[in-house]
Amino acid sequence: MKVLVVGSGVAGICLTHELIQAGCNVRLIDKGGNASSAVAAGIINPLVFRRMTLSWRVSELIPFARKKYAEMEQLTGNSFYHPLVIRRLFASEQELGFWKTKQELPEFSEYMETLIEEDLSFPLEQNTFGTGRVKQAAYIDTDVFMHANHAYFQSKGILSEETFDQRELDPKEAVYKGVSYDFILFAEGKDGKSNPLFSYLPLQQTKGEVLTLASETMYAEESLNRKCFLLPLGDGRFKVGSTYAWDTDNTIPTEEGKQTITENLKSITSETYTITEHKAGVRPTVPDRRPLIGRHPVFPKMVIANGLGTKGYMIAPLLMHELVDHLLKGTELNAESHISRFPHAPL
Ligand SMILES: Cc1cc2nc3c(=O)[nH]c(=O)nc-3n(C[C@H](O)[C@H](O)[C@H](O)COP(=O)(O)OP(=O)(O)OC[C@H]3O[C@@H](n4cnc5c(N)ncnc54)[C@H](O)[C@@H]3O)c2cc1C
Fold first, then answer.
1. Which of 143, 188, 233, 249, when mutated, tests ligand 1's pocket best, judged by the most ligand atoms within 8 Å of its CB?
2. How far apart are CA 87 and CA 122, in angstroms?
C-alpha cells in the first residue's frame, strides 16, 4: 500500500509509525511552521479537574500511549516519555469533597491516590483546602519528541518539507501531483479548517499560550495544578500554562496571554522566576470534544485524522492505530470520534 500523510504533528507522527509497522510505503509531508504539537506541554492527565471526571476512554488510551511512546523511544534512540505525579491544589471545600467521594469508586481509584494527612497538610501557603495526587500521569518532552521523530523519518527518506496543494489533487482516484496513492491522510491540525474536502466538519481553532520559566526555588518534585499547570522539566526549568482563546488561528504570543498565565501561577507559588520562553499555538478542537477520524463519505481514499483538541498526546497513539487498522483491515472505528456523526451535504 502506498500512503501519503499530510502533517507531521503528533497525529501524523503516530500515523506514520503505524503505517511503517504495517508494511506500507509511506510519504510524510509538512509545510513547516507552527505545529500545536511543538508548543504543547505534552501532559497526559487521566482526570478532568474542572468536573472531577475521568478523561474520555482513559483506561484504553493511557496504557496504549505508554506502550507506543516506549516503542518510539526505542526506534529513535531518544527519551521523551516521563512518568509524572500531578498534585491538584483543591480550589474549594467542595472540590475536596468530590475527591473524597470519587477516590472510593473503583474506576477512579486507579487514577487517584487515596488522600493521606500529608496531602491535606501539604506545606505550601496556597494550600487552603488540601491537595490530591493523580496516578498514571506522564508528560512527553515535546521538543525532544518532535525532533527525534522528524530526524528518524528524515533518515529513512520518508519526510519532506512541502505544502500540500489541493489544486494538484484528484480526490476520487487519490492521485496527487501525478502519483497514485491508496490513501491520502490529512493530519493538518488547525489548518484542516481550510481543507475543502472536510470543510463541512466543525473543526475549531483554539489558541493557547505557554511560558518556560527558570527558578532555583520552585517546587520541582511534582507537577502542581490549580488554575494552571506548573510542569518541572529538570535543571530548574518549568513549563506553565495555558490560555484559551477561541476562533483565532494566529500563533503570535501576546502580552495578555503572559499576564493571564503569571496571574494564575500566583495561585500555585509565590517563588521568584524568570521567563525564558513564551510560545503560542492553536489546538484543533471540536465542539463535542471528540476527534474527527474517518474516510471521506464521497471520496473514501481521502481520510481525516484531526480534532485532537487539548489532549492530543494522550489520544493520538490509540486513535491512529485504530485508524490504520480500519484502513488496512476494515475494522470498525469508534463511533464517538467517527466523522459520520456529522451530516455531509452532497457535493
Ligand atoms: C499551549 C498548548 C498547550 C497544550 N498542552 C497539551 C498537553 O499538555 N497535553 C496534550 O496532550 N496536548 C496539549 N495541547 C494540545 C496538542 O498540542 C494537540 O492536541 C496536538 O498537538 C494536535 O496535533 P496534530 O498533529 O493534530 O496538529 P499539529 O501539531 O498542529 O500538526 C499539524 C501539522 O500539519 C502541518 N500542515 C497543515 N496543513 C498542511 C498542508 N496543507 N501541507 C503540509 N503540512 C500541513 C502543519 O505544519 C503542522 O506541522 C496543547 C496545545 C497548546 C496550544
1. 188
2. 10
